[in-house]
Amino acid sequence: MSRLPTSRRRQSIWRLLDAAARWVVPSAMLAFGLFLLGLPFHIPGQALLRPAYAMGCVYFWSLFRPGSMPVPLTGLIGLLLDLMGVTPPGLWAVLLIVLQSATFISRRRLAPARFLVTWGVFTGFAAVASLLAWALQSGLALRLLPAWPVGLEILISAALYPSLAAVLVHVHRGPAAVELA
Amino acid sequence: MLRLSVPFRQALSRLSPVLMLMLSLGCILIGRADQNFDNDLRTGLNDILAPAYMVFSAPIEAAEHGTGVIGHLFSLSEENAQLREQNTELLQWQEVAMALQAQNDALKASLHYVPSPMPQYSTGEVVADTGGIYDRSVLVLVPPANGDPQNLVGAVAMDGRGVAGRVVEAGARSARVLLITDLNSRIPVALGANGAPALMAGRNGPDPSLIYWSPGQPPAEGAMVLTSAQGGAFPPGLPIGVVHYDAQNDPVVLPLASLDSLRLLRLFSYPDNLPVLTQIPHTKPAATAHHGKH
Q1: What value does the CA radius of gyration of chain A take, rounded to a whole number of Å?
Q2: Is CATH 2.40.10.340 the classification given to domain B120-181+260-293?
Q3: Of residues B246 and B144, which shows the higher confidence score?
Q4: Phi-psi region of B113 (alpha: psi -120 to 50; beta: other; left: phi over 0)
Q5: For residue range B162-195, what is the model confidence (pLDDT) as tens digits?
Q6: Which entry of A2, A96, A163, B260 is 20 to 30 Å from B212 by CA?
Q7: Cross-chain CB nearest to A83 (options B26, B42, B131)
Q8: Fold classified for B186-259
Q9: Cα–Cα distance between A84 and A73 in angstroms, integer?
Q10: pTM, whole model, 2 decimals?
């Protein structure tokens, strides 16, 4: 929380703008990152990076700055993820909302926990979400899709999270800190 | 700022996940029931994002070219010698090709051969990799459509060497190409010199597999794989790749197109006078009817 009570300070239009800009940072970063990951870098497994990145961001912000990642925004970002890729629209919206709700529920325990714990829990959540994605897509396509990408997706999510968290912690304390506005 | 009472805000925050979840599930169901729903959404988004993709992919390409130039400097003389050698070889082949063309023309003239219709084509830059875990597709910028962008749906996408895929969605500025390696890609092909029929099915890996070939005539290792006109979705005779055996009785196609690093794609729209036996997927009913009349 801020050192100065926010209500005591003057509510100028610039401060409101600053606060709004800071509030937007997490979701804007998430959306822009998804866009960047769509560029043809020709990295093997690039398609798997996008859901992993989205899950990591949603988990981190729901854990440490839930105010900046409201559920409707998560839904919209999920829809964006679906439309930028080729998954049925709404699929990742559902999965990201489920992930976020699970994070909200376990937030009181997780937020003060050590990094290893949050990382482990994230890997578990990502595994469940990836499995659900596979099951839903198989169900919607009415055939059994190959299961190996699920394992790869989980591995990539787990491997991506520490570096992602290291960056997001800085964003959390700096550009995204609404209380510093 | 909107001021709401505390209990109301609490209720709202409890309800919003449920509401959003129901909305998203509804979205999935609508998309499942109506193919055009997600096509329209996606095409709209791609058309909006296409210029942005182009702005951002230009520096990547420049960087790639730049590093390429520096890398090439070191092996210039070697490469020159190699190119000279290749050039003489190609010149010989050119003569062969010209002779064959002349012979071909003479034979066609004496057979009253009806040439296959010339396709219209447009060239587009690949600006985004829009694949997912189970999908292989790329987004191509297309020049602003003169007329109905739906005409482009079904166009055959080729890079410099072979068939890369097929346009499944087209908007005013962008088109989505489903690559031949996608799980949903099924292409009738003709194998080898005698054109034995088979179906090439994408399997999410780098090489699509061959299925439904006749058991008496198994595809030969190294045989050329060309498109077949069966089903009317493709014009005949476009090069796709060569047959290769990964395991016994499991022939795959090594694509000629470099599907991992597509830069430019040519989209060939073939005239619609091929027999229409297979519906081109994702075409709006109205558009199909329109095509049918011509």
Answers
A1: 17
A2: yes
A3: B246
A4: beta
A5: 899 998 888 888 888 999 988 888 899 998 878 8
A6: B260
A7: B42
A8: Thrombin, subunit H (2.40.10)
A9: 16
A10: 0.76
